[in-house]
Design a protein that fits this description.
Blueprint (H helix, E strand, L loop, with lengths): L6 H16 L7 H11 L3 H13 L5 H7 L5 H11 L7 H13 L3 H10 L7 H9 L11 H9 L2 H4 L1 H6 L7 H13 L3 H9 L5 H12 L11 H11 L1 H14 L2 H12 L5 H13 L5 H8 L3 H11 L5 H10 L5 H11 L3 H12 L10 H11 L2 H6 L9 H10 L2 H5 L3 H11 L5 E2 L2 E2 L14 H9 L10 E7 L4 E9 L3 E5 L6 E4 L3 E10 L11 H12 L6
Antiparallel strand pairs: 1-2, 3-4, 3-7, 4-5, 5-6
């Protein structure tokens, strides 16, 4: 049956043969017949079927599997690797052959199976196998191999940091090299990493890039004693090395690098991305000199969005006033960014609340997620201005009200383009539909959107059923900021938070004052409260549509 055109019959036959093997009822010639298919059949699929069956019934010797590592078929070689590592204890002979294959096998499938086996190899040979796999420049753009190789070697850092970093200088895979440097930063091995960079390998650029990536968002790092001399050499080298060295020095708080960052920021003739990077570096350091520069940057449309983000790093009443006074003139995108900044601190939150109270800023300008954030930074006084937020009634009267509003004739007459605009403003920062929108909440494209009852239940009672992944986490930092979002990754030193309307945010645990996992959904209640009847009807009609609206 292993040569039957039907894969289903072949699988069933393997199961039956395995059962007979366990019960000691196999016919005497079964293994011989299967080995004949495996060794001589011209069909590679049937050979693999025979191979799997022989393994299931215990018909292979280790010597035969080691011989199969030299087979002409790459998939046979690959499966031989997997079968030899099933008990996580391959023999010395097998490991020697793995080492040879890691260097010389021309097929990426075999190398992929070798990378998959790395965590099943406990002996010292694993280092040599990884070293061989790292030499294949042709795998640089492979979708899987660099990632699989990284996953295979990353746990070794804790075992032996020095040996781990020794793999980096000769690596031909930039993804792995950069991640090795990043792991060294996370593991507090900065001096060893800098010493490795000083040796001047061809991978210095990748190591510096990984080092920079690992440092971003960290304000708890101390400058390694050997960085000053190494950075001077890198700056003299010019090019990318110089640029990376300057950015790293800036994150270390180097005085000269800070001065350069300010000079870059002020120089309008430089490329925009360089100036934005300088602003981000200075913001991370919370450089006091930036407070006087932000109003100047506000006058540049291209830098305004980054300047708005930078204001969140400072507890400054003049900057808060600047943001509020400029608010009517901002673009829609800038207004959303401003709302995020104004809800990040108690001072700014109180200032925004007063603007809402005096109706200088309309409630409709404030996203529901921002209103919820303001409740946390301002306190109960915000409810007096705004009204209920997390306790919006979801009683029968509310359902009846919206059911009557969302009758078939109203929905049929709705403006879908206007509904899309409401979606982008009220829902799109969290939810994606037809490929447009955010990724904090579930993608709505495939949900039960055609049923108004389903939509009403999720809008009126978003916390009725809530998965842990969508519970809101509130983090207060020692510098006075408040963040609300959901955690997408975490390690010993940092938390990565996904926040409505913002890029992913990395927060150092050393800077966290308090952290609370709430029992409420990331989706706030009262989504309809600040929408007109026409906006609600248009929104629901858009949500019900089965095609993209352009």
């Amino acid at each position: 049956m292993q040569t039957n055109p039907s894969d289903w019959h072949a699988r069933r036959a393997r199961g039956i043969l395995h059962k007979r093997s366990v019960q000691k009822k196999l016919q005497a010639n079964t293994v011989t017949a299967l080995k004949k298919i495996f060794s001589a059949d011209p069909n590679p699929d049937w050979r693999l079927r025979a191979m799997w069956t022989i393994q299931q019934i215990g018909g292979f010797t280790e010597k035969e599997l080691i011989q199969s590592l030299s087979d002409k078929d790459s998939y046979v070689r690959a499966w031989s690797i997997q079968l030899l590592c099933e008990d996580m204890n391959p023999s010395v002979e097998a490991l020697a052959k793995f080492r040879t294959l890691s260097v010389s096998d021309p097929d990426p499938v075999v190398r992929l199976y070798l990378t998959s086996a790395l965590q099943r190899i406990s002996s010292s040979e694993k280092w040599a196998i990884a070293q061989g796999l790292l030499q294949h420049q042709e795998d640089e753009k492979d979708h899987n191999l660099p990632k699989m190789l990284w996953y295979g070697i990353e746990p070794w850092f804790a075992e032996n940091p020095d040996k781990f970093l020794s793999l980096a200088p000769s690596s031909k895979l930039s993804f792995v090299t950069q991640n090795m440097a990043r792991r060294a930063v996370d593991g507090n091995q900065l001096e060893k990493l800098v010493a490795l960079i000083e040796k001047g390998s061809s991978n210095a650029d990748h190591l510096l890039s990984g080092m920079l990536s690992g440092m971003e968002g960290r304000i708890d790092l101390k400058t390694p004693s050997n960085w000053k001399s190494v950075s001077e050499k890198l700056r003299k080298a010019g090019g990318k090395k110089e640029q990376l060295a300057l950015e790293i020095s800036g994150l270390f708080g180097d005085t000269e690098a800070t001065q350069r960052a300010f000079a870059t920021l002020k120089n309008k003739s430089l490329p925009l991305d360089q100036r934005k990077k300088a602003l981000q570096t200075l913001t991370t350091q919370q450089q006091k000199g930036l407070v006087s520069e932000i109003p100047v940057l506000f006058q540049e449309a291209a830098m305004r969005k980054e300047a708005i983000r930078s204001i969140a790093a400072f507890d400054s009443e003049p900057l808060g006033k600047l943001l509020l006074e400029s608010f009517p003139k901002l673009t829609q995108e800038e207004k959303l960014e401003a709302m995020q900044t104004l809800s990040s601190r108690a001072r700014y939150g109180n200032m925004l609340t007063q603007q809402i109270k005096s109706k200088k800023i309309a409630k409709s300008e404030v996203p529901a997620s921002v209103a919820r954030q303001l409740l946390r930074v301002v306190g109960s006084g915000f409810i007096e201005v705004w009204g209920p937020i997390e306790s919006v009634p979801s009683n029968k009267e509310a359902y009846d009200k919206y059911r009557a509003m969302l009758n078939p004739s109203a929905l049929n007459a709705a403006n879908l383009n206007a509904g899309k605009s409401v979606f982008i403003k009220s829902c799109g920062s969290c939810h994606k539909m037809f490929g447009e929108g955010g990724i904090i909440g579930p993608d709505l494209t495939g949900s039960n959107r055609t049923d108004p009852e389903y939509i009403l239940m999720n809008v009126l009672e978003p916390t009725a059923e809530i998965q842990d992944d969508y519970k809101m986490v509130v983090i207060n930092t020692r510098d006075g900021r408040t963040y609300s979002g959901n955690i997408i990754s975490e390690n010993d030193r940092q938390v990565t938070l996904r926040i409505v309307g913002q890029d992913q945010l990395i927060i150092n645990k050393s800077g966290i004052l308090s952290r609370e996992v709430t029992e409420v959904s990331m989706m706030p209640s009262g989504l309809f409260e600040n929408l007109t009847q026409t906006e609600i009807v248009n929104l629901i009609a858009y949500l019900k549509t089965n095609k993209r609206i352009d």
